[in-house]
Amino acid sequence: MVALGSSFAAGPGIKPVANRSALRSERNYAHLVAAHFGAHLTDATVSGATTSTIVDTSQRMLGTTFDPQISSVHPDTDLVTITAAGNDLGYLPSMISVATTYRLERHWVTRAVAERMRRRSPLTAVTTEQRTAATDGLVRIVEGVRQRAPQARVVLVDYFPVVSQDTAPSANVPLSADDIAHFRAVAAALSTAFADASARSQADLVAASSLPQNHSLGSPDPWIFGLHVRTLMCPFHPTADAMRAVADRIVEVLAT
């Protein structure tokens, strides 16, 4: 089994850590699925990855250079999981930036910095062209995998829900109502990109985005890390509970 993807596959913030430079956990969904099937896993996921750094571009992360992840796929690979394209659309980086800006605005010492950040990085809606490019990037990964491992089963795994219709601004959710609506729209565009990529490439699709929304940010039992000092490297990313839920859904799909 080979796992390809960005932070939502790598699992930053979940202990134990498999690779500090990649912000990769030993308890991400790929490790859980591999353990279920007794499979040998090559986990190539790297936080911050894009579809390009998976296919043909090296990635520099925390002082380490990672080769394109797809180089981990070999002719005898049986199963490949893919979670990517969120960074292509600036999904989590934008959310972290906006939330950090709100936190900085609360203190007069850092308020000017926050205002500059907000002017420099205004939120803009995902365009059709951007969504199509994300879809193309996912299809390119699938095609690259099949060239290297023609017999492998390929599974696209989209993004666990970060915010839902019940998420509201609060001290623990440093986003405005408009921001929340914006990021829900980005998440929807990302899910559409995965569905379109699955239809075009005939890869299996595990819609982690359709898992119960009652564990999103701001819920009584969130399966998403908040923005705290102790989670500076992983805010708004899945917790161990979310990874278990995604792994269980992958196992269900693979059984069909």
Structural class: alpha/beta
Distance between the termini: 18 Å
From the alpha carbons, calculate the radius of gyration and give it in angstroms. 18 Å
Main sheet attributes: strand count, strand direction, barrel closure? 5 strands, parallel
Which fold name is given in CATH as the topology? Answer: Rossmann fold
- Share of residues in strands: 5-15%
**Tally of strands:** 9
Helix content range: 40-55%
Low-confidence stretches: none
CATH architecture: 3-Layer(aba) Sandwich
**CATH class value:** Alpha Beta
Mean pLDDT: 92
The CATH homologous superfamily is named: SGNH hydrolase
Trace the largest sheet across and list its strands: 4-1-7-8-9
Protein architecture, described:
The protein has 256 residues and is an alpha/beta fold. It has one domain (2-254): SGNH hydrolase (Rossmann fold), CATH 3.40.50. It contains eight helices and nine strands. The protein has helices at residues 7-10, 29-37, 51-55, 91-105, 111-120, 128-148, 177-201, 240-254; strands at residues 2-5, 17-19, 24-25, 42-43, 59-61, 64-66, 79-83, 153-157, 204-206. A five-stranded parallel sheet has the order 4-1-7-8-9, with helices on both faces. A two-stranded antiparallel ribbon has the order 2-3. A two-stranded antiparallel ribbon has the order 5-6. The relative contact order is 0.16.
